[in-house]
């Protein structure tokens, strides 16, 4: 099993799983289970007096759903974030359709020859299970709150400097930069949805652009936020690809 981000997903297609072959000469019928994704199977009639090449009867054959996905290594799991992320293609049988997110992949390795005259193969994954990572699924508030915690939160909420307390607790290893910490904190808790006079909604999300000299602590702040909140991800613009950043948006 391995973990990764879906950076591309094809539509769900039909995979020939059990091929039905019919001999046009003698009428012999043979059913064969297909395990090869990359070639159309062929069959020779088993009748000793015939031995002709059989025809594939597509209408009598059996099919299953299959989806091709490209899974990329998450940047936060790379030993060296400066290295380019790696990816691999996975084929998911009996797929109901999955198109984005961070997933756990269970499967076996397949090989496909890429040069007929050379022993060079491309690696794929034949998967029987691709599921969304639990830590990146939606977290319900009722699942994590208890009466004691609610009372503690109510007491904190009565303090006038609650934003200062929580923003400093959020990134304690960086001294100073209170305004920056407050901005990051308020971005994480988001705001309420507001409406213009014409009824158009204003989004509650905000964006922050930090421009400072090197060594101030920008990366430290971002890594801290990525660890505290599972919906966040940290990426370096020098190594991240468009496909890797897309699942984070």
Keywords:
single chain; alpha+beta; 249 residues; 19% helix; OB fold (Dihydrolipoamide Acetyltransferase, E2P); 5-stranded mixed β-barrel; two-stranded antiparallel sheet; 5 helices
**How much strand?**
25-35%
Number of domains: 2
Computed over alpha carbons, the radius of gyration is 27 Å
According to CATH, the fold-level topology of the largest domain is OB fold (Dihydrolipoamide Acetyltransferase, E2P)
Distance between the termini: 25 Å
Strand line-up across the major sheet: 1-5-6-8-7
Descriptive overview:
- It is a single chain.
- By secondary structure, the protein is an alpha+beta fold.
- The chain has two domains: 2-136, Nucleic acid-binding proteins (OB fold (Dihydrolipoamide Acetyltransferase, E2P), Beta Barrel); 141-229, no CATH class.
- Helix content is 19%, strand content 29%.
- The chain is built from five helices and ten strands; from the N terminus they run E-E-E-E-E-E-E-E-H-H-H-E-E-H-H.
- It has helices spanning 147-157, 162-170, 178-189, 218-228, 242-245; strands at residues 2-9, 13-22, 29-33, 55-56, 62-72, 87-93, 102-113, 121-132, 194-195, 201-202.
- The strands form two sheets. It has a five-stranded mixed β-barrel with strand order 1-5-6-8-7. Strands 9-10 form a two-stranded antiparallel ribbon.
- A hairpin with a 5-residue loop joins strand 9 and strand 10.
- Helix 2 crosses helix 3 (178-189).
- The longest helix is centred in the C-terminal third of the chain and has 12 residues, at 178-189.
- The radius of gyration is 27 Å and the shape is elongated.
- The model has no long low-confidence stretch (mean pLDDT 81).
